[in-house]
Amino acid sequence: MKLSVYCSGSIAKGASDAGKLTWSDVERREVAKGTAPHEVVFLNPDDPITDPRNTLGQFGRDMYQVMVATAVIVDARERRGLGIGVEMAAAGTFGTPVLVVAPPNTKYRADRLEYRGVTVHDYVHPHVAALAAAVVDDFLAAGEALARIVDAGPPPRARHVPGWLGPAIDEYRDNVLGADLPMLAALRRLDRIPG
Description:
The protein has helices at 25-35, 55-68, 82-94, 126-131, 139-151, 166-175, 181-189; strands at residues 2-8, 39-43, 71-75, 98-101, 109-115, 118-124, 134-136. By secondary structure, the protein is an alpha/beta fold. It has a single domain, classed as 3-Layer(aba) Sandwich (Rossmann fold). It has a 5-stranded parallel β-sheet with strand order 2-1-3-4-7, with helices on both faces. The protein has a two-stranded antiparallel sheet with strand order 5-6. Helix 2 crosses helix 6. The two termini are 22 Å apart. The relative contact order is 0.20.
C-alpha cells in the first residue's frame, strides 16, 4: 500500500540554520524501513514553491499536504517553532494521525522533570501528548507506528475544512498547485488527482 508522510520539522532557511536538525534522506530512509512493506511518498514542506512571496499560498501548501497525508511525522528532536504546532493542530482538525519523534530526555520528553512545583515522571509536553497518536524515540519507530496505524484500518478523517484553513488551501489549489512540480509528482505517485 502507498502511504504519504508529511515531514514536519525545521527547514534550513539559510546559513544561520546550519546546525539545526532537519529532515534528510537519512530520516526518510528510516521511516521507509519502518513502514515496509508499505511504500512511502514523502511530502516535503521545504520543496521550492513557485512564488515565495505568496505567503497565503505557501501556508496553504503546508496545510494541503497535512490534509492529504496518511500521517504527519514531527521531528521533535530539538526545540521547534510555531509552524510545527500549527501543523500538528491542523492535522488533528483533519483527522490526520500525528507521530512525534522525541527521544527521551530532550525538549519535549523527559524521564523526570521538575514542573510547576512537582516532580513528573515520564513527562511528555502537554501539547505533544494531546495531539500525538504516538511519541517515539526515532524515525524507524515512527515508521513502525505508522504501519501499525495503517494496518489497523483507516482512522476517521474530517470532511470539513475549517474557516481558518480554507482560504489558504483554496489559494494553494487555485493558484500554486498547478506549477508545484514536486507536489504534482507526489500526487501522481499516490494516484490522486489534484482538485
